[in-house]
Write a structure and sequence with these properties.
single chain; Rossmann fold; 47% helix; 6 strands
Length: 249
């Protein structure tokens, strides 16, 4: 294969930006995709300045028309997509009794449909290559539950279930599908919107994490880089927790 092409969603900041930089460092051409074009362009420019190859694309992962156009542009400017990181997502804290049908549907539209659409669109490229890597970023909240996040946890649980199913369906085609459920990662939208709502102080929360620190976006990027590499070809359908030991299996 020639230079591998990676599509990373939600890549304008946080985990997605760190993954984009890391995959570019590994020699891949990267599409930095985000619903907001300006931060995506900034990340792509940083990759180019460091000697990598990247383009920025603005699109909503839950809109098939926008994602179809985005994938077509990636193919035209970088080549067929053989690495997909479904990272973009929506998070929110709200008591279960206050959830509305609209809030529930919106969460699943972004966090589940928004993984389904990009995966389906790039699948022809991976099938043609006889090789592909898909990494879905889920959440440790799907493994443990989280107070005030019933819709979020449920949507991320669906991502884990979808990962397991696609791993079995696509594995015979040379395509592996795995997922990473992060713990508390600094610099992410979820962390920033929830850090002041914890029932106990952050210092006490850190003591509950065996490695005694919150995660960094680069921690997730490191695991992702391995999962999309040649070295992980026998790893399929797995949940690779990157959470400092908060959840053990």
């Amino acid at each position: 294969m020639s230079q591998k092409v990676a599509l990373v969603t939600g890549a304008g900041s946080g985990i997605g930006a760190a993954i984009s930089r890391r995959l570019a460092k590994e020699g891949m051409a990267v599409c930095v995709l985000d619903v907001n074009g300006e931060p995506a362009a900034k990340v792509a420019a940083e990759i180019e300045a460091a000697g990598g190859k990247a383009i920025a694309v603005a699109a909503s992962i839950a809109r098939r028309d926008q994602m179809t156009a985005a994938v077509q542009r990636v193919r035209a400017e970088l080549g067929p997509v053989t690495v997909l990181v479904n990272n973009a997502g929506l998070s929110e804290i709200l008591p279960f009794e206050e959830l509305t049908d609209e809030l529930w549907d919106r969460m699943f539209e972004v966090n589940v449909k928004g993984f389904f659409i990009p995966t389906q669109l790039v699948l022809p490229d991976m099938k043609a290559a006889g090789w592909g890597r898909i990494v879905n970023i889920s959440s440790s909240s799907a493994q443990t539950g989280a107070v005030g996040m019933a819709h979020y946890s449920a949507s991320k649980g669906a991502v884990i279930a979808m990962t397991r199913t696609l791993a079995q369906e696509l594995g015979p085609l040379g395509i592996t599908v795995n997922n990473i459920p992060p713990g508390s990662v600094q610099g992410t939208i979820l962390y920033e919107t929830t850090k002041d709502r914890f029932a106990i102080p952050l210092e006490q929360l850190i003591k509950a994490i065996p490695v005694r620190r919150f995660g960094e976006p680069e921690d997730i990027a490191n695991a992702c880089a391995w999962l999309v590499s040649e070295a992980s070809g026998y790893v399929n359908g797995q949940t690779i927790g990157v959470n400092g030991g908060r959840v053990v299996s």
